[in-house]
Amino acid sequence: MSRAVPNLMGLALLPSALFFALFFFLPIGLMAVMSFLTGNPVVMPNVVATTRHYERILEDPFYFEVMWTTVRIGLWTTAITLLLGYPLAHLMARVKSRSLHALLLMAVLMPMLTGIVVRTFAWMALLSDKGVVNQLLQGLGFAPMQLMYNEFGIVLGLVHIYLPFMILTLTGVIGRIDERLEQAAQNLGASPIRAFVEVTLPLSVPGILAGSLLVFALAISAYVTPILMGGFQIMTLPILIYQQISANFNIGFAAALGMVLLALSLVLVVAYNHILAALSGQRDLQ
Amino acid sequence: MSARIELSAVSKSYDGGARAVDAIDMTIEPGEFFSLLGPSGCGKTTTLRMIAGFETPTDGVIRVGGADITRVPAHKRDMGMVFQNYALFPHRTVRENVAFGLRMRGMARAAIARKVDEALAMVALTGFEDRRPGQLSGGQQQRVALARAIVIQPRVLLCDEPLGALDKKLRQSMQFELKQLQKTLGVTLVFVTHDQEEALAMSDRIAVLNGGKVEQVGTPVEIYDRPATRFVADFIGDTNLFRGEIVPAGAGVALKVSPELVLPLPAAPAASGLVSVALRPEKVRLAAGTDANAITPGTVESANFQGGHVLYRVALPGNRHLLVQSRNDGSGAPLPAGAPVSLSWAPADLVILKD
User: In terms of Cα–Cα distance, which of B229, B217, B351, B341 is closest to B280?
Assistant: First the structure.
């Protein structure tokens, strides 16, 4: 009887294990293999192993530029969602009134009910050269501004889309921090701001970490928003990969770029973990 | 160093709802060990939180050392507080936890280190400086919380059921330690508890709260022996409650509980008509057999041997019952059920209550 339970648990895990193997490890494995081949072995008989895709990435500074743009957009998006999301998440975690909490939650979740494409088009209607904002500026006698087809537009669009992920992640973590800890700090003479900085902020580091990684990973792999808001003026890794597959039919090179994107996020995840763990003095986070 | 705390007509209601605290008046003397005692929801914790500054009274004034602090923010009140769950900072070591209040006061590093060592020595936790709260037992965490609260040398120490999470043995030894520490420091201590034994054992004075109102303020002996209200008599310890009509009896007056049961009263009460009285089980003398001088006869219904004493449930005339606690004087087995007994007590032990 006692041995039947773990077996049952194992059985219950089987579907998700299969799903992961089929749709996660297998594609990534295939991508890794493809990045070292001269072509697609399914359609070409004389495929050989090569490192030329990686050499190409390393030799051409253009690809470094693309990588850096992608990471820069990811960092800006993460930093801004964190700064905008934290106060709201703190409020949501601490608000006493149930109806106000429900209202805030709805406000956070509501945008997610609309598709990314629709929301991005809404931004375009607002921010394009002849959009609402520029018409308004000109009407008031100001010069029109370049608000999209640049990194600013992309970051704005991404912040809008990924802010809920940051808020929900942070709310969960902050909500589990006992409010009495902050009160204890105040009782010992810390002003409310000082109490927050000394107690709540360091204890919410796991949430900051999780939310930032989630938003960063989503932002550097975003495709729709950078295309629509950037109008192909800004080249990011996902756009480049898509072009390599759909326009150049260079699957091997696209796979190599995909591996670079993966490695980039992994390196940043590990680095970020270490930095925040060191900052908060919580060694168990590493 | 210690300060007087005065609450006048302090009320607290949430979102216009019922009053959690309803026009409380009390004065807590400097250096006093003062308990707020009552069942959950009686307003004791809310009262403490208003003194600490975590809640703002809806009405009324709180003064500490003569100064009105009703609207002073919590971090400027200079009070130590021990929270129910200790509220130790989990990401800080014991030393950092205790040093926190001193650091907020901008004290020099060397002075902080010395004071922290002193405070930890006072609660017998020397050697635990570098542990995290999660690595300590409940009793040790409790001591850290205490050290953290007293190291800032507060005028007032507030304790919200600080011993609630400890097991019974540890609880008793901590009761002695806390009391001892309070006397040594001479600090005014406000102690919230729902445990009447704890309040009786530790306090100089107790305020019994019920439904947001003060039922009675007094020394433990006053609260126990002379409860003012039916609630206090019932809440503190075991008690026998009778309700009856005041009737003249000979030279004085008596309480007519039923036609068969008339109990002599010590003095004419201020109230007339129906009143309630309380009688503690250990104040009743129980003797086997019948005795014409006894106040009332009875019949043993059950006897509960508890080691140091026997708790009898005795049937009285008129279908009433009386709990009697009889000291185990070594005279043998308790009286069997059905044994006739005679019961007597000093009329003054019958306490007339306000409803």
Answer: B351
Q: Which residues does residue B275 pair with via DSSP β-bridges, in sequence order?
A: B244
**A31 vs B184: CA distance, rounded Å:** 74
From the list B75, B80, B88, the residue facing A190 with the nearest CB is B75
- Asked if A194 reaches chain B (Cβ–Cβ under 8 Å), the answer is yes
Tokens for B79? 């009070």
Structure-token pair, residue B315: 């049937």
Please give the average per-residue pLDDT across A65-83, as a whole number.
Answer: 95
Residues of chain B contacting residue A278, judged by C-beta atoms under 8 Å apart: none
Confirm whether A21 is domain-assigned.
no
Distance from CA of B121 to the nearest CA of A (A): 20
Q: For residue range B159-213, what is the model confidence (pLDDT) as tens digits?
A: 998 887 778 888 888 888 889 889 999 999 999 999 999 999 999 999 999 999 9
Q: How far does A181 lie from chain B, in Å, by closest CA?
A: 5
- Cβ atoms of A178 and B85 within 8 Å: the answer is yes
When CB atoms are compared, the residue of B74, B101, B148 closest to A183 is B74
What is the domain count for chain A?
1
Report the CATH number of the B238-353 domain: 2.40.50.140
What part of B 61-120 touches A (C-beta under 8 Å)? 73-81, 83, 85, 87-91, 100-101, 104-105
Domain boundaries along the sequence of chain B: 5-227, 238-353
Contacts of B109 (CB under 8 A, 6+ apart): none
Token readout for B36 is: 């707020």
ipTM, interface predicted TM-score of the complex = 0.81
The CATH number for A169's domain is: 1.10.3720.10
Residue with tokens 């570098």: B130
Q: Flag whether residue B130 sits within 8 Å of chain A, measured between CB atoms.
A: no
> Is A23 part of a structural domain of the chain?
no
139-158 of B, contacting A, C-beta below 8 A: 148, 152
At residue A286, the pLDDT reads: 36
Tokens matching residue A137? 């500026």
Q: Which residues contact A258 (CB under 8 A, 6 or more apart)?
A: A31, A35, A241
Nearest of B86, B88, B94 to residue B117 by alpha carbon: B94
> What mean pLDDT comes out for the span B74-95?
92
Region label for B23, one of left (φ > 0), alpha (ψ between -120 and 50) or beta (otherwise): left
Rounded Cα–Cα distance for residues B148 and B301 (Å): 53
